[in-house]
Write a structure and sequence with these properties.
This protein is an alpha/beta fold and 247 residues long. It has a single domain, classed as Metal-dependent hydrolases (TIM Barrel). The protein contains 9 helices and 9 strands. A 9-stranded mixed sheet has the order 2-1-3-4-5-6-7-8-9. Helix 2 links the parallel strand 3 and strand 4. Helix 3 runs parallel beside helix 4 and helix 6 packs parallel to helix 7. The chain starts with a strand and ends in a 5-residue tail after the last helix. Bound molecules: zinc ion. Zinc ion binds next to strand 1. The site of zinc ion has 3 residues, from strand 1.
């Protein structure tokens, strides 16, 4: 059976959004819904991103093949510090991507600090996931188009694919820039169908964001009654390709 991959999850605390996700909750929700592997990152409001990255690496080591790490650091810490931590995450901890949190880290993708995130992902050969949706104007999907054009070989994943309210813009951006990918947590079911039909299942990926939202996202995809080959792609095969996941 095709693997099911949740491409968007967080471990630990978030002082920005007032959230907390425990390992027990995450594993229980994965088992309930039949998620084979989860790509997991610190929250943007992690009080100590260095420590949270170490905890994610430890989680990956204790549950082989069930978790892959994604680095999340505010580029406002400064270029050297930022790049040193991303290098550590990629080379020592074997993380598979990094995050630009437009609202949680207050980063406009069009600024110098925004570019640092894309340039660093490009330099280390990993995809960049960018928060889109709530948090306008920084989180507008179109703000990723200049970076997508500047780094045509960089895969940029629009987290939440515009989150419903600007999902049409995410769809337009991805239709113009072929290196934009859409992770669909919090989108309306019919938005997802629309994206699959226009952008294609090779650039659409399931994500849940929060443990309690894992069964909700599975129910949403099931309700769309999409054909099995397409379902297998968006629920896992595309993510395996995009993040170069290996077991
Ligand atoms: Zn998130």
């Amino acid at each position: 059976m095709a693997k099911k991959i949740d491409t968007h999850a967080h471990l630990g605390e978030c002082c920005v959004f007032g959230l907390y996700a425990t390992e027990e909750d995450i594993l229980r929700r994965m088992d309930e819904s039949g998620v084979d592997a989860t790509i997991i990152q610190p929250y943007p409001g992690a009080t100590d991103y260095h420590q949270r990255h170490d905890e994610i690496a430890d989680l990956c080591a204790r549950h082989p093949g069930r978790f892959f790490g994604l680095a999340s650091v505010s580029p406002h810490v400064g270029k050297d510090k930022y790049q040193r931590e991303i290098e550590r995450c990629v080379k020592d901890l074997k993380f598979v991507a990094l995050k630009l949190h437009t609202i949680g880290h207050a980063v406009n993708p069009l600024t110098e600090d925004g570019d640092l995130v894309f340039a660093t992902a490009f330099q280390f050969g990993i995809p960049a996931m960018v928060h889109t949706g709530a948090g306008i104007p920084f989180s507008l999907p179109a703000l990723c188009m200049p970076a997508a054009n500047k780094y045509p070989d960089l895969k940029i994943i629009l987290a939440h694919a515009g989150g419903g309210i600007v999902s049409a813009e995410a769809q337009v951006a991805a239709s113009i820039c072929k290196n934009l990918y859409l992770e669909t947590s919090w989108c309306l079911g019919e938005d997802i169908r629309w994206m699959i039909n226009t952008i294609g299942p090779d650039r659409i990926m399931m994500g849940a964001d929060l443990p309690s939202n894992v069964p909700v996202e599975f129910a949403k995809y099931k309700a769309l009654e999409i054909e099995p080959a397409v379902y297998d792609k968006v629920m896992g095969e595309t993510a395996i390709d995009v993040f170069k996941l290996t077991w």
